[in-house]
Design goal:
This protein is α/β, with parallel strands linked by helices. It has 12 helices and 9 strands.
Length: 343
């Protein structure tokens, strides 16, 4: 059954976003265009997360590491958010499972800690951030294996899957969809919703390289995507590895955000179309004047903070049980209620 997606334009262009866009264009785009995607070029990239770890943690936020084989995850509770073990029913409160971006090359728990803390505050729930393994240690299959392992662990802890929402930016947006699809194919109960921020969802770069946004993107160069995809999945990567090419039937409601001029807008729009065809309720927001994965910059930009508030509203609607007594009581499983659920 086809459903009609909700597509909204969001205004932007604050003075802060104007400065960030141009600074990224001037400094980040040349760096990312020419940085060597070789084994030696990849080795220093974990330093990005290490340096971010030197920053003081957000005030009032609590953290707790969870160890997995070969990697870590991290619980994040914003000030005032209750831990599951502080309630009489630890599995009833819900949670967000977050997959960070970074092109499967860089970033990690520390780079995204402040954004994750803001999401926790916005939705009033703990967030489990996943520090999955990346290149050059593992390829795409290894990263996905780690994310599946964390979801399996959450279910083992007794959390209600209907009150878990997957979220991720860029490469993490890929993992949010891929983890849900892998869980479905393994016969697991799916999470209650998916949030994807500037997601990379099609490993084939052809459409993105031909799109006008390839030249307009503030810092992400489309020219590097074929090399990166080959590193992740081999020169002859199976098109079925791209979430946009998979059977999307049965996925939960989805919220996608993208910047107006980023190259990955292609993937966001294509996934929105294919989710609608598969009968999956989906809302797509296109934000003007922003850089790729701009919600990660929540401390810097008013638009990023506004986007995180919308993410929080979406998550709360998913995880909070509702009695349908009026127009604001949206059922996330009913496509007819999607325009209300999307905000």
């Amino acid at each position: 059954m086809n459903v009609e997606p909700v597509v909204n334009q969001r205004a932007g262009n604050s003075a802060q976003s104007w400065l960030v866009f141009r600074a990224a264009r001037l400094m980040l785009r040349p760096l990312l265009t020419y940085w060597p995607l070789t084994r030696w070029g990849l080795l220093p990239l974990p330093l990005v997360d290490s340096v971010a770890g030197l920053l003081p943690p957000p005030r009032g936020v609590r953290f707790e590491r969870v160890g997995f084989t070969g990697f870590h995850a991290e619980w994040v509770w914003a000030e005032g958010v209750v831990r599951p073990d502080e309630t009489d029913n630890p599995g009833s409160g819900g949670a967000v499972l977050y997959f960070h971006g970074g092109a499967f090359l860089a970033c990690g728990l520390a780079t995204h800690r402040r954004e994750v803390a803001r999401i926790s505050a916005a939705c009033g729930l703990p967030v489990l951030s996943v520090g999955y393994r990346q290149l050059p240690t593992v390829g795409l299959a290894g990263s996905l294996q780690d994310c599946r392992a964390v979801y399996d662990w959450l279910l083992e802890q007794g959390l209600d899957p209907a009150r878990i929402v997957f979220a991720g930016d860029s490469a993490g947006g890929y993992l949010a969809f891929a983890t849900a699809l892998a869980a479905r194919d393994a016969g697991l109960v799916l999470p209650g919703g998916i949030v994807a921020l500037s997601p990379w969802l099609d490993l084939d770069a052809t459409a993105k390289q031909a799109h006008p946004n390839a030249a307009l993107d503030a810092y992400a160069p489309a020219s590097r995507l074929p090399t990166l995809a080959a590193l992740l999945a081999g020169l002859d990567a199976d098109p079925g590895l791209s979430p946009v090419n998979q059977d999307l039937t049965g996925l939960p409601p989805v919220l996608i955000m993208a910047a107006e001029h980023e190259m990955l807008r292609c993937d966001a729009e294509l996934m929105t179309e294919r989710l609608a065809t598969a009968g999956v309720p989906c809302a797509l927001q296109i934000w003007a004047g922003q850089v790729h994965a701009f919600p990660v910059l929540g401390n810097l930009l008013p638009e990023s903070r506004a986007a995180i508030e919308e993410i929080g509203a979406f998550v709360r609607r998913i995880v909070t049980p509702r009695t349908r007594t009026g127009p604001t009581d949206a059922d996330p499983t009913d496509p007819e209620d999607w325009s209300v659920l999307a905000g």
